[in-house]
Amino acid sequence: MKIQFLGTGAAEGIPAVFCNCEICRKIRSLGEAEFRTRSQVIIDGVLSVDFPPEAFYHSIKFGAELSKLKYLLVSHSHMDHFYAHDFILRGYKYAELAEDKLEIFGNSEVGKVFAECTERELKPEVAPHINFNEISPYSIFMIGGYKIMTLPAVHSKTEQALLFYIEREGKGYLHMYDTGIPDEGIYEFLSRNNAKADAVCFDCTFTDKVGGNSVRHMNIYDNMTVKSNLEKYAITDGGTRYIISHFSHNSNPTRLRLKSLEDKFGVTSAYDGFIIEI
Ligand SMILES: [Zn+2]
Ligand SMILES: [Zn+2]
Ligand SMILES: [Zn+2]
Questions:
Q1: Residues in the 5 Å CB sphere of ion ligand 1
Q2: Which domain does 259 fall in, by range?
Q3: 75 C-alpha vs ligand 1 centroid, how far in Å?
Q4: Share of the chain above pLDDT 70, in %
């Protein structure tokens, strides 16, 4: 399974879209290697987790061939994870498609945002090429050769955001953002259904910043709590790779600074374009 991290910043991006703070000014001066776009992870070129405003930019910057996408899993409806306006361009004169249909999976709010964002401009010729499927936590389903398990995130009061366990040919990837420390039930569910994660990606919005953090995201210490739970339930083991991502500008996530967390906590920090194979 080839997992490519195309966007590794939180909602505001890095440097943040309207921000003039010291960190964003420094990151602007350091240049492109330090920039972080909004969340997107593409697996084997066919399955995307989330679809941010920069999906188009990811296609030109990293060669992500979006015409080949077959499946889109959407964690929740926040705009940094689901920019649905682009879907009006999936067909007709705007696109020769490599895959006839894109299947989108998300909660009911994602369904509403999809409808709202496409209602004005979606041509009847484009509509048959996109299909929305509503999903909820604690379900297991197959899409192509991928087995998907959905888990409840701790993120929003107005919708149930989702975490995903994705498995193909005996390899498992656990995708965990946006979320605070999840409920104990997720470990029991994963364990009961024999999930084995070769790679885990954590929401590490706050890096090692403590105090004053919202409970809707995590810092590295929260990540370590989740890691020990995953180990306790034998969902991960000594061979599992732990990745941290979804960083906020408030947490000063320069690559040099994150390197010190990598050594101390045994994690790898994702950056835009980062690839792992499991
Ligand atoms: Zn987010
Ligand atoms: Zn800033
Ligand atoms: Zn969110």
A1: 80, 178
A2: 2-277
A3: 9
A4: 100
d(CA 159, CA 193) in angstroms, rounded, equals 25
Per residue in 216-252, pLDDT (tens digit) is 999 999 999 999 999 999 999 999 999 999 999 999 9
Length of the chain (residues): 278
Q: What is the pTM of this model?
A: 0.97
Distance 50 CA to ligand 1 centre (A): 10
What is the whole-number distance in angstroms between the Cα of residue 226 and the centre of ligand 3? 19
* Buried/exposed code over 159-193 (b: 16+ C-beta within 10 A; e: otherwise): bbbbbbbbbbeeebbbbbbbbbebeeebbebbeee
Quick one: pLDDT band at residue 81, thresholds 50, 70, 90?
very high
pLDDT digits over 107-144, tens only? 999 999 999 999 999 999 999 999 999 999 999 999 99
For ligand 3, the distance from its centroid to the CA atom of residue 54, given in whole angstroms, is: 16
**161 CA → ligand 2 middle, Å:** 26
Choose among 161, 134, 127, 164: nearest CA to 147. Answer: 164
Instruction: State the CATH number of the domain containing residue 50.
Output: 3.60.15.10
- Which ligand neighbours the alpha carbon of 205 most closely? 1
pLDDT of residue 123: 98
Q: How far is CA 197 from the centre of its chain?
A: 16
Domain count, the chain: 1
